[in-house]
Amino acid sequence: MSKPSIGFVGLGAMGFGMATHLVKQGYPVHGFDVFPASIERFKAAGGIPAYSLRESAEGKNYYIVMVASSPQAQAVLFAEDGIVQHLPQNAVLMLCSTVSSMYAQSVVAELQNRGRGDILFVDSPVSGGALRAANGTLSIMAGASDEALNAARDILQEMSDESKLYLVPGGVGAGSNMKMVHQVLAAIHILGASEAMGFAAQLGLDAPVMAQKIQASDAWTWMHENRFPRMVEEDWNSGASAVTIILKDAGIITTTARQQRFPTPLCSTAEQIYLSALLHGWGPKDDSAMVRQYYARPLSEASVSPAADAEAATELVLDLMRGVNLVAAAEAVAFARHLKVDLSMFHTLVSQAAGGSKIFIEQGLEMIEGRIGDKAPAGSESVDQVAAKLETVVQKARDLHCPLHLGNAALNVLFMTQRHGSGAQSSTSVIRVYGQ
Amino acid sequence: MSKPSIGFVGLGAMGFGMATHLVKQGYPVHGFDVFPASIERFKAAGGIPAYSLRESAEGKNYYIVMVASSPQAQAVLFAEDGIVQHLPQNAVLMLCSTVSSMYAQSVVAELQNRGRGDILFVDSPVSGGALRAANGTLSIMAGASDEALNAARDILQEMSDESKLYLVPGGVGAGSNMKMVHQVLAAIHILGASEAMGFAAQLGLDAPVMAQKIQASDAWTWMHENRFPRMVEEDWNSGASAVTIILKDAGIITTTARQQRFPTPLCSTAEQIYLSALLHGWGPKDDSAMVRQYYARPLSEASVSPAADAEAATELVLDLMRGVNLVAAAEAVAFARHLKVDLSMFHTLVSQAAGGSKIFIEQGLEMIEGRIGDKAPAGSESVDQVAAKLETVVQKARDLHCPLHLGNAALNVLFMTQRHGSGAQSSTSVIRVYGQ
């Protein structure tokens, strides 16, 4: 059986990988991009070049939008001579860009207004980075009508790992909300990776050794593991994941949080530090370059301290990440719960995706299941204990004149939790400070 | 009656003013500094040069220490051939540097240990800037034994404004604690002045016009009024008040807060942004240079927008300062209360000193007096209303890609207050989120 033609717009780092993967799977993919060079590159990789939105959309029963933002999506979808104008009846339109759920829902309304309610629209953001895009092993979070989900399922499955296509209940918007709460963790952990390694450098620790210890410990985050090689190589112009990209996602989170009047102190802190970096010209660089906001020289130039100090110093870095990852998990779970996101699916998804951390996998699950007990059970830490360790970390960073934006913000959240009477309770009780 | 000789160490921006003012009042002041040029400058201004600590201390019944930090104080007081070794019996020793109360108390203990319990030690930090130091109109917060306070009173009064010598109950440490909680406001308002003016520039507002409107409104802070001229002139090498100075004070606050496990989200945010500036080489600059962390060019280069927009934009800047100043007042009052600082004196002091703001003078007093009511009284704003305005501000800054560190931190504190059920209450109820 021959595979259906697919229209595709947005051949950037992610989109190029997704589109060429579909080509490899035997789909005729008609790809368009605003940069002619990207179209030629796609052609060279076996894709069918489309030299206009019209050409990419005409006669295509399946269409994938992978542009960088909702303003771009709005333009390619609804501009004169845009995609919607040229899609055939009952075409399946998959929006894979990261947008707010509000924007995704507005697309449905605008399709109706334009008399194109026939189009089967799927809100299907992705996660996993350029490599997984190219391998067809992305995580995809799809929300839509049952009819649209059924129609889009096979193609979404081609682009995602066998176990990582999430059909999120709740219709259009639910996919984007799922992606958004995932990005709460991503936005914090990306900065967290830089904060940990910058602090380690200020402590005089050897970066590769420290990174290995983080990866082997309960301080592990997917982002740290993924970003560290580029961070230490200063491979900051690869186009893999620019500061502007995570900044955009953080903006979707904090804008939605403001509409919901929901506190996101850690994610907001991260966003502000990304914004500061943007102001000083770091926007187009890989987000692992954020390490320069903590340590002014290359990580490889950190002087390596003697082994005796190194052990205690290593523990400080691990404690930093543990503390930050714990509060990050609380912030993400509390926000997800507030938005009525399917928490069990959220946990499964994050645990296997870019927002994952050891702490989220374990303590995040306890938070989701409401196992936050009145007293810290034997063998588990209390809020007081986590705060005490993070206090030592923050003081040490202060003594070294090392900024520690997330560490400080997390510690203040823990202090607030203590002030509201939950200090002796298990560390997962920090979620209580985010309200009901 | 001839005036007594005074020993003096620390002829920096503040110390030079204080010492020469005492000279003008007829005191023989023997001044020492580690920089020989400062001694010569003091000599040229009519002071008596001392070329060693010994020379400055021998035979002096009154001694004033105005070095920059507690490590420096420790060195000049207790080093071999240091001050304490050479002071006569029952000398009055005034430590005017800003230090932690813990450090001030440690001096008393060390005097005892060294058999110099006879020395009348006064913990007497000052506030007001170099100009007031030179005019003898500083605010001084003195804590000591009654005997020491009585002995030091006349000289402290010479250096302070008639109404601004505060004899703080509680002995040694109480002066430093009073100064510290004052500095909570100073540390936030210094960054707040830059944040407001940087945001105004991003909005295309004319800086002098905006500054005037702030000064004429309930968004006024002493720091904004004081810093704005240097900010707009980019007069950043005057030595008036370097980033490192407020960073040191912020460090005293957050270190003490950590020991007390007390949350200081706004002050910590400010400290982290000062630390970031330090990392990038801004430490020695005047703290008004922090505006560059919000707007990358001189304020004078901001393009002036048409008058229609300007009115709404101006209101956004005022709302930013109102929101931040409100949470700053809550943070300072809550922390002062926690430390059992005399709140009535605290209010009087701040209202006339560098930490002052219109919001603190009014809403701060309501917080101190416990007038935080169950419902916002007619004519006053609720937490919900302040949060709603700040939300608009923060969103606008985000749209402009303008960092807004304090605005975001303050908004998250307000959201936490709402999540804990105080949204409909008067805005001063934000203090509740800081706990009992």
What does this structure look like?
Chain A is α/β, with parallel strands linked by helices and 436 residues long. The first copy, chain A, folds into 2 domains: 167 residues, Rossmann fold; 255 residues, N-(1-d-carboxylethyl)-l-norvaline Dehydrogenase, domain 2 (Orthogonal Bundle). Helix content of chain A is 55%, strand content 8%. In chain A, the strands form 2 sheets. Chain A has a 6-stranded parallel sheet with strand order 3-2-1-4-5-6, with helices on both faces. In chain A, α14 crosses α17. The longest helix of chain A is centred in the C-terminal third of the chain and has 32 residues. Chain A starts with 5 loop residues before the first strand and ends in a 17-residue tail after the last helix. The relative contact order of chain A is 0.10. Chains A and B meet through α12, α13, α17 and α18 of A and α12, α13, α17 and α18 of B.
